Amino acid sequence: MADIEAPAYTSERVDPRWYRSSASDYLTYLFHVAAYRFALRYTAGREVLDYGCGTGYGTALLAESAKRVIGIDISDAALAYASASYRRSNLSFQHVPPAENSPLPFDDHRFDKIVSFQVIEHIGAVQLYLSEIERVLRPGGYVVFATPDRTSRLFSFQKPWNRYHVTEYSAPQLSALLSPTFADVDVHGMTAAPGVIEAELRRTRRLRWVLLPLTLPLIPEALRRAGLGAFKAMSEARAQRQNQPQRAYEFDESAILIGPHQPNCANLLAVCRKMEPEGGMHG
Q1: Which of 41, 106, 162, 177 is at 20 to 30 A from 143, Cα to Cα?
Q2: Which residues pair with residue 190 across a beta bridge?
Q3: What CATH number is associated with residue 100?
Q4: Residue-wise pLDDT tens digits, 134-155
């Protein structure tokens, strides 16, 4: 296999090579893996789309039991790495343009199940994104979304302090957004065991205060993005994650908790079913 240059580090794209460089990165990685493991109950033996697959580690996990999985992403570098790193006969990766720019390159009702993790908060044209997911999903099929829980990260009036995030949702907001398009919307919270989640909550609550001047509602979007970009560049330069050693921590995936009405959630998981036409059943 030819060597593929790894995509540059970014906190927006979780990569197993870097996940032990800090406790926060490790917990973020565990949340991502737990979301994919949660989705396995819906994807086994099915035709699956992973919308926003990144470097492909979660897509490959789904492919271990799915009939077929296609991972799509907007990053050519991430897809090249995924294609070189994870190879199965039932697994493929494909580039797609941003959701605002064009429809998905798949026929109607192409997939039994769809997962889209840590994507919806990036989308401006969110109704187009949802309608395209609904279009390529078979009637009766399920889609699982994962996204940050704004309740633990932001004041009620505050714009996201992540410059790539357009909108972050609370559980009621996410349910209200998804319910017009899908049936049986069920929103779960993702947190971690006591003694693990507290450090992450302190980190995000500190950021909402530190970055509040850039994230007030009246701040122009261009200024918000520029200011947050400069702050992030300085933070990542100090961290130098790519050069940090892989560390051991006293918690693992068993610390992740998923369920309804969880307190202190870092993320939300929404399970939605596509409505079926009257008079017909489609598995």
Answers
A1: 162
A2: 258, 267
A3: 3.40.50.150
A4: 999 999 999 999 999 999 999 9
